[in-house]
């Protein structure tokens, strides 16, 4: 989705803005632009395409100033084009604005403004804002912004500059993230932490309905209706190096390699001999016993982690779990009340559908636990309890280390619930916890031992435009994630099926040479899955089996081994070859691995 950066200080703003925008490239975008204020003039440079094209234009036009705003746009209203890219300027050239989000009532506002004679140069919803600023300007920028905000319906994070009020930067938000970074005599604004992390780790996190008026002497925080806000400074505990590629060709590969460390961070301080410490979940044992149902609600990869969560919670804590896609849950009047526990899952903590699902659940009286990666983002701030997964910044659009740490969060929650309900004997709990502790090393072992094999496999294997992933029980849940990973970064059409379901229709698609990736780890159904593999093989499917030692591999054309672990925990290990396979196939096909077409990292619109 769109990215925002702003700067006011004593340095030339252009390189700071461009560097910040680069750090936000991972969010996905199709055009970019910057505006600089200098000596009573505002200069804007913007273009459709990637940041390299903006940089070229900047070289030619050399905008200058120590105050500026920048934006990467991911088209929603109006196609990717230079006129539609941000910043947007008022017809009288007095105001420039960058905007993340969607102004839902923009067409009404646009008609009203057109009737008053305002000329529009773009198809965007955003352009109403600079014109409204002109319409309502009363000599005081903050007051004018407040009047404009009253007219807007929808979601926005806005940065505003005015020629008439030099040396001032206004930031305001509603349902779209915005942070203000504080350094010595200079201030940064961004939609996302990595954009400013190399400059400061001291930030204000703006809440919905809050505004920051920033000049070189400081930041004045207030609500949009004018009440002063007193806010604590938040210290970001990410190391700036975490948001760099560190020698890897792509962020995705770096993040795959970071998974052992991410898992270690996710469990740090939480695993005891036989118990799980999750003090951040404020439920009593009685409350856990009283829940008759759990809903897990999320999107994409986070949703897939919830499918594994269902197996873990149902099998250990014996609470029925329904897993729902957030964009469906929020509109289908779900049967949720105070006896239902809702768990929402989100890497970014800003996904619009997941946030709306959380609010829907709370409105119906349910308690909501968030499993989240991004500290200070909206979802954990609104949830009743938060389990942070501590994966560190995930930059590649394709989620890997966040997925793995979401899985481990679910395993920890399942054990925690089961112990609270007295359903898990100490011995079994110790067994599971000791297996959890081994997982980071086992993940490292899989990467070490299978990366080269998978890179080779990718060269010859996935030449087709279709692929299938099959498995049973937890293996099926992971197959769904493997299939999403392959399609989102390599653009190969991939589907995941419960292995036993193929013969009910999909087997008709299996023909000579079709790649089928089979996960075979669940002891109770290994023989059944092997029979399904035979059915595929008989019709020409080429099988890659992912399995632990001891499984009959004679039907496999290729075999990838994972180390032995507890049956329930295999998802954390089988996910690794699938991530590597998707990565190397995408590289082979020359795809833009970190920023796949049409996709964005943080989906802040419906
Ligand atoms: C995964 O590779 C995708 N990029 C996507 O499915 C993602 O998991 C989904 O958009 C949810 O994002 P969130 O975890 O930030 O809420």
Q: Would you give an account of this structure?
A:
There is one protein chain. By secondary structure, the chain is an alpha/beta fold. Helices cover 35% and strands 23% of the residues. The protein contains 17 helices and 24 strands. An eight-stranded antiparallel sheet has the order 3-2-4-1-10-9-11-14, with helices on one face. Helix 7 packs antiparallel against helix 14 (426-460), helix 9 (300-317) packs antiparallel against helix 15 and helix 14 runs parallel beside helix 17. It is globular and about 75 Å long. The chain starts with a strand and ends in an 18-residue tail after the last helix. 2-deoxy-2-amino glucitol-6-phosphate (AGP) is lined by residues 299-302, 346-348, 351, 354, 397-399, 488, 602-603.
């Amino acid at each position: 989705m769109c990215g925002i950066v702003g700067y006011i200080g004593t340095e030339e703003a252009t390189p700071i803005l461009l560097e910040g925008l680069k750090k936000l490239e991972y969010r996905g975008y199709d055009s970019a632009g910057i505006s600089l204020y200098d000596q009573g003039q505002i200069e804007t440079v913007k273009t459709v395409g990637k940041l390299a094209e903006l940089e070229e234009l900047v070289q030619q036009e050399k905008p200058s100033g120590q105050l500026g705003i920048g934006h990467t746009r991911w088209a929603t209203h109006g196609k990717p084009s230079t006129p539609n890219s941000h910043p947007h300027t008022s017809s009288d050239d007095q105001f420039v604005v960058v905007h993340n989000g969607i102004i839902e009532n923009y067409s009404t506002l646009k008609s009203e403004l057109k009737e008053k004679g305002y000329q529009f140069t773009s198809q965007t919803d955003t352009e109403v804002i600079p014109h409204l600023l002109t319409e309502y300007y009363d000599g005081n920028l903050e007051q004018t912004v407040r009047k404009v905000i009253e007219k807007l319906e929808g979601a926005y994070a806005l940065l505003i500059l005015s020629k008439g009020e030099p040396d001032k930067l206004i930031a305001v938000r509603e349902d779209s993230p915005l942070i203000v970074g504080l350094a010595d005599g200079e201030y940064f604004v961004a939609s996302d932490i990595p954009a400013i992390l190399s400059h400061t780790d001291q930030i204000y996190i703006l809440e919905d309905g809050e505004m920051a008026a920033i000049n070189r002497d400081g930041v004045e925080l207030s609500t949009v209706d004018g009440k002063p806000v007193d806010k604590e400074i938040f210290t970001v505990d990410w190391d700036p190096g975490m948001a760099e590629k560190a020698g890897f060709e792509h962020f995705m590969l770096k993040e795959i390699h970071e998974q052992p460390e991410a898992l270690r961070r996710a469990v740090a301080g939480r695993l005891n001999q036989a118990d799980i410490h999750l003090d951040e979940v404020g439920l009593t044992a009685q409350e856990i016993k009283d829940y008759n149902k759990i809903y897990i609600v999320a999107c994409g990869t986070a949703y897939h982690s919830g499918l594994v969560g269902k197996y873990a919670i149902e099998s250990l804590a014996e609470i029925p779990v329904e897993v729902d896609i957030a964009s469906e849950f929020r509109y289908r009047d779900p049967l949720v009340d105070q006896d239902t526990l809702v768990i929402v899952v989100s890497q970014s903590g800003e996904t619009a559908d997941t946030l709306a699902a959380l609010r829907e659940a709370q409105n119906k009286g349910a308690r909501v636990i968030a499993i989240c990666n991004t500290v200070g983002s909206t979802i954990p701030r609104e949830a009743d309890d938060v389990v942070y997964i501590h994966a560190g910044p995930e930059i590649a659009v394709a989620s890997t280390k966040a997925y793995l740490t979401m899985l481990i969060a679910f395993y920890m929650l399942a054990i925690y619930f089961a112990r609270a309900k007295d359903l898990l004997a100490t011995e079994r709990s110790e067994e599971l916890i000791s297996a959890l502790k081994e997982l980071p090393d086992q993940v490292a072992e899989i990467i070490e031992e299978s990366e080269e094999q998978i890179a080779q496999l990718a060269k010859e294997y996935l030449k087709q435009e279709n692929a299938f992933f099959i498995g049973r029980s937890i293996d099926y849940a992971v197959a769904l994630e493997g299939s999403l990973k392959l399609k989102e970064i390599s653009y190969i059409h991939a589907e995941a099926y419960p292995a036993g379901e193929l013969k009910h229709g999909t087997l008709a698609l299996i023909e000579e040479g079709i790649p089928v990736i089979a996960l075979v780890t669940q002891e109770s159904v290994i023989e059944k899955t092997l029979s399904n593999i035979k059915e595929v093989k008989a019709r020409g499917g080429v099988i890659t089996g992912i399995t632990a030692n001891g499984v009959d591999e004679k039907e496999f054309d290729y075999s990838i081994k994972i180390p032995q672990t507890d049956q329930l925990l295999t998802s954390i290990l089988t996910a690794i070859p699938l991530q590597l396979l998707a990565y190397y196939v995408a590289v082979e096909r020359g795809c833009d691995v970190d920023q796949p077409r049409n996709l964005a990292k943080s989906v802040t619109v419906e």
